[in-house]
Amino acid sequence: MRRMFLVTGLAAVFAGFATGCTQRQRVNIETEIATALVSDEQERQIGRAVHEELERQGARAVRDPVVVAYVESIVRSLLGEVRREGTGPVHVHVLDAPEEVNAFATPGGHVYVFSGLLLAAGDEAEVAGVLAHELGHLVAHHPERRLLWLFGTETLAALALGEEPHVLAQIAASFAQGGLLAANSRADENEADEIAVRLTHRAGWDPRGLVRFFRRVRDLEGDLPGLLAWLSTHPTSTDRIERVRAMLEERGWEGGADGAVEHDEVRRRLRARSDAGSAPS
Ligand code: ZN
Predict the structure, then answer these.
(1) How far is the CA of 34 from the centre of ligand 1 (A)?
(2) How far apart are CA 263 and CA 62, in angstroms?
(3) 71-97 core/surface letters (b: 16 or more CB in 10 A; e: else)
């Protein structure tokens, strides 16, 4: 009951503030409301539901220990930086989908990387850039804000009270299919890019990896129509590439490791795997 009161109060505040304030203030207010409405336990629930939905759709995990350890170690290194920014534990999943260039993160701290993205990336710094971008969405609470926009305060409040089980299923399906919940606004994409270059730079990689990856998928687009799921939610316009490049130049962040040797080994293992028709390892 008390929670309901709080929620109604927040909704009134939200309606009152939504007009007549700056974009930054609006984002801050929305973030506060969204994080108040979506509890940690609910986030874990959504995370589990997305995972179950992906399994239901037949998603399979890559079990090659070298590949899994590679991705986990990248996330662990970035995580040292993310923890400082206030995010909880993160679970990494490498999905066996050599044709899909994709990665995404869900509430509850799950990061999904498709093997096609590892095959498409040129080196470790590029993979780190993309993963840091996905972690950036979590750090900045973009999924919670997106839930607020799409479902509104009343539905989220009912969900918090366990009254809307079908909404949970809808949320899980949307994430798993790269639907509305996976598509972020341009402002959110820019913010995640900024966080990504900061995290990769602090963790010791060349933060230009993200820019290289953007260029790479843009060039691949014509060759692999329909296969670049990441592109559909991450348009790599010249503007965007230029924006990240200028930000790096301004901050003087242009050096760092590329991890090309480790990445080549991972790609070799994944290729051998897809040549063998994804035989279990
Ligand atoms: Zn993004």
Answers:
(1) 19
(2) 16
(3) bbebbebbbebbeeeebeebebbbbbb
Rounded to the nearest whole angstrom, what is the distance from the C-alpha of residue 276 to the centroid of ligand 1? Answer: 32
Q: How far apart are CA 209 and CA 200, in angstroms?
A: 9
How remote is the CA of residue 183 from the centroid of ligand 1, in Å?
8
Q: Which of 124, 134, 144, 189 is catalytic?
A: 134
Residue 262 is among the residues annotated as catalytic for this protein: no
pLDDT digits (tens, 9 = 90+) for 214-263: 888 888 766 665 555 666 677 767 888 899 999 999 999 988 999 999 99
7-48 confidence digits (pLDDT tens): 445 554 555 555 567 777 888 888 888 887 788 888 888 899
CA of 133 to the centre of ligand 1 (A): 6
Pair 93, 110: CB distance under 8 Å: yes
Kindly report the pTM of this predicted structure.
0.84
